[in-house]
Amino acid sequence: MIPRHQNMEDSKVxxxxxxxxxxxxxxxxLKAIYQAAIKRVDPYAMVRSRVALAGNTLQIxxxxxxxxxxxxxxxxxxxxxxxxxxxxxxxxxxxILGSKLSGGLISVKKGHTxxxxxxxxxxxxxxxxxxxxxxAARQIxxxxxxxxxxxxxxxxxxxxxxxxxxxxxxxxxxxxxxxxKQKTTELLxxxxxxxxxxxxxxxQLSGIKGGKLARHMYPATSVSLILSDVVGDDLGAIxxxxxxxxxxxxxxxxxIVKKYGLxxxxxxxxxxxxxxxxxxxSDEGDARDETVFSKVHxxxxxxxxAALTAARQKAESLGYNTLVLGxxxxxEAREIAKVFSGMAQDLALGxxxxxxxxCVLAGGETTVTIxxxxxxxxxxxxxxxxxxxxxxxxxxxxxxxFLSGAxxxxxxxxxxxxxxxxxxxxxxxxxxxLDIQDYLGRNDSYTYFDTAGYLFKPGPTxxxxxxxxxxxxx
Length: 474
Hints:
Blueprint: H1 8-13, H2 24-40, H3 43-50, E1 51-54, E2 57-61, E3 66-70, E4 76-82, H4 86-97, E5 103-109, E6 119-124, H5 131-145, E7 151-157, H6 161-164, E8 170-171, E9 174-175, H7 178-190, H8 195-204, H9 212-217, E10 221-227, H10 250-259, H11 268-284, E11 296-302, H12 304-317, E12 321-329, H13 333-348, E13 358-364, H14 378-392, E14 400-406, E15 418-422, H15 423-431, H16 436-441, H17 445-452, E16 455-456, E17 467-473
């Protein structure tokens, strides 16, 4: 039952809070803090606040430097891009450029769309690429290849772009198929590999990632406006770096495959191409021409730290003594949950400063090693593991409230951003006869929280800057 003081919007995303109003504000605050973080990294607002047209000069304003382009030098201006946050960025660029824009094409995750006039949208598969991912890549390469010295490409890049642009690569006459790339992606996502490792393999098997889009665009000038979903903001890792120099190698990709025991499970085409590439590197060294990047401007617009800054400001405005742990949290989701739960219990018992009420914030991107065939994502897995720790160590748990959520609104292949954990959630699960260990063992966190009524479903946010963890201790 939803408490009467909650609005209808709250009831859509937080279910099963019970009748005790003393428990309701922390859940409402968790949601408000999350939403403040999302608002700060709204892609449309970021582009409009940073990019402007002054006469015929395109100005891109940043904290440490400005980039200015004289548009009189260009006969054609195209917008290209891929990512979950790309559609609102494209809308902003259409408004800014107006009649100066010649056209363009972006690839977005299904449902993460917007209304555009001159820029075509292709909705493609994520996290595993599909036929639309391949079609989008082919069409973008075709547009890029037509550029010359009088062409300006504005590339809009955000998290998810790796799956949304899928162009099979070639090495020494060996090519991979879309099916090869799909199976390889599934294996990498299931084995617990980090995003940088996954993207290293993706880049070697691709004809557009790892700076290859920049090579297709050369000798045109290009500006890439980038929203980071990668811990550390490595431009070569965000969407697998289509316009950034690639410093990874085929040999490194093979090492990652071996590290996770995938050598015998990799599709034959993918395995042969990685091996051929490693042999070529051994025979010829790195023969890549980096001069193409002399005409590329890669600009980072927003990241997880910006979201955390806004979350901290909102938490403080709600009266919480707030700590930000950092924006680079990585590792197995269920192991990171143990760190949060241990800290939460110390805070709840007053063993650590600051004084109550406390809000602890963190961000990053954890991983999940798939052990079962359940439904969920890394944020739901973290919340369920956190809940298990509360069940096993119940000291002070009546004052502990936790939310782990994906900033794009979709945690893994689900319609939830994440889930809540607290004593109220535990009671609801127990009343429904749910066994936490059973659901963790099957990686079925979504079903647990769906049954208990504590999934967090804000819907697609059209942004993507990794994940957020929000811990409140009363």
